[in-house]
Amino acid sequence: MKNQRARGRMSCTGNLRYYGFGLLAAATVALTAPVHAAAGEKGTLSTGDAVIAAEPATPVSTEAATVSTVKKSLPPEVTTVVKPVKGPDLRDWQPPIAPRVTIPPLVDSEQEKQLAEEWGVKLISLNLTAAGYMMDFRFRVLDVNKALPLFDHRIKPLIIVERSGAKLPVPMAAKVGAFRPTNRGKNIKADRNYYMVFGNPDHHVKQGEKVNLVIGDFKAENITVN
Q: Which of 68, 120, 208, 222 is most buried by a 10 A CB count?
């Protein structure tokens, strides 16, 4: 009894497989018939049992393809396509000329002449720096022998604020020392610029204020902070 049931199941399975393959073959013929019909007019490319209709491709330039793509993306009412315009010719381009900035003298002409004759220096600038927490003093050495006292490490430079009388010294760092040049290496030379940096705690000195610079016997008065 069991053998008969097993044979019946095998028979049904075989019939289903047979009919399934038949349906698949019929569908394949139905789908490829239009392709074979079109192949009679156009070139065909055969790979095994599959036949695919192929049409020769026409080469299209990149510019034509770009214009065609732009036309397709435009709305129906727009019919004109503007081609890209070339940029300006930069071969004769010249950079703009920066405006000349004139820095006013740090002291009046009489005091400037007196400092040059007596101390051999010319004051250049006194500007706020380090977000206003310091002041950067610049000067030029004209005569080394006359200017040597300004580089003596034993003399402590000070800025005295005219408004409050506060005395602001040169800061001292642990590893680099004071923020000023000295003549320990005998390297001070004429016609060179030098600097001194003074502290300005709590932004005590504001831009435009008047201060006095004192380095031992050297004194420059009525200096404007920029």
A: 120
pLDDT tens per residue across span 154-207:
999 999 999 999 999 999 888 778 888 888 778 889 999 999 999 999 999 999
- 139 contacts 122 by C-beta, under 8 angstroms: yes
Q: Which amino acid is at 201?
A: P
Counting beta carbons within 10 angstroms of the beta carbon of residue 205, is it exposed (0 to 12), middle (13 to 18) or buried (19 or more)? buried
Looking at the whole model, is its pTM more than 0.85?
no
By DSSP bridging, strand 50-53 and strand 44-47 are antiparallel
Please choose, from the candidates 134, 192, 198, 186, the residue with its C-alpha nearest in 3D space to the C-alpha of residue 160: 198
117 burial level (CB within 10 Å; 0-12, 13-18, 19+): exposed
C-alpha angle 201/204/205, rounded to 5°?
Answer: 120
Instruction: Count Cβ neighbours within 10 Å for each residue of 120-145 and write b for 16 or more, e otherwise.
Output: bbbbbbbebeeeeebbbbebbbbebe
Q: For 104-138, how does the pLDDT look when each residue is reduced to its tens digit (9 = 90+)?
A: 778 888 999 999 999 999 999 999 999 999 999 99
Euclidean distance between CA atoms 150 and 206, whole angstroms: 25
Residue 221's alpha-carbon distances to 50, 204, 211, 214, in angstroms, are 102, 18, 7, 9
